[in-house]
Design goal:
Elements (H helix, E strand, L loop, with lengths): L12 E14 L5 E15 L10 H21 L7 E7 L2 E9 L4 E2 L2 E2 L1 E6 L2 E9 L2 E4 L5 H8 L6 E4 L2 E4 L2
Antiparallel strand pairs: 1-2, 3-4, 4-7, 5-6, 7-8, 8-9, 10-11
Length: 167
């Protein structure tokens, strides 16, 4: 239960655009596992106090076109920046599988410094490259973060579909 008075007021609304990869694996005759990894963009919000959207339908459409044109440009210039990277690792007696999705805004000249991490069908958080090493604010223990990103690793560079980490 949320603490009294926390968060946005009741009646606040958002309009999001989500672009994602969907991975589906059939487990048996009746069951599937579905994972989605992608990008989420806020097109507009409605304040509870006024009931008004901050952007008209036309403005939202123009913003969506700008987003899509930007993504198309990025895919044409550096297609690897929007490719989910498969992760497989063992840490503290547990096996992990998932994806690292480069955050396009953090990518410069073939290097991405932020990754959206999903492991064992659970969203872990954004892994960021800092001068002190990799960080995921949602994870308190550095052990798993170091296992994912490597302790003290420097710049991360995409080479085809494999991450190559080096100083």
């Amino acid at each position: 239960k949320a603490p009294e008075g926390s968060g946005v007021p009741v009646g606040t609304a958002y309009h999001w655009f989500i672009l994602s990869h969907q991975y589906v694996e059939k487990l048996n005759a009746n069951d599937y596992i579905t994972r989605m990894v992608g990008l989420k963009y806020k097109l507009a919000h409605r304040r509870a106090a006024t009931g008004e959207w901050n952007a008209s339908g036309d403005a939202r459409r123009r913003h969506l076109v700008e987003i899509l044109q930007c993504i198309i440009g990025e895919l044409q210039r550096e297609p690897e920046q929007l490719v989910p990277v498969p992760l497989r690792l063992d840490y503290s007696g547990k096996h992990y599988e998932g994806t690292a999705m480069p955050v396009p805004a953090s990518c410069q000249q073939g290097a991405c410094f932020d990754l959206d991490i999903t492991l064992n069908n659970e969203h872990i958080g954004i892994m960021r490259q800092t001068p002190a090493g990799w960080k995921i604010s949602e994870i308190k223990s550095k052990g798993l973060v170091n296992a994912i990103g490597g302790s003290g690793m420097g710049r991360m560079v995409m080479s085809h579909e494999l991450w190559v980490m080096g100083k």
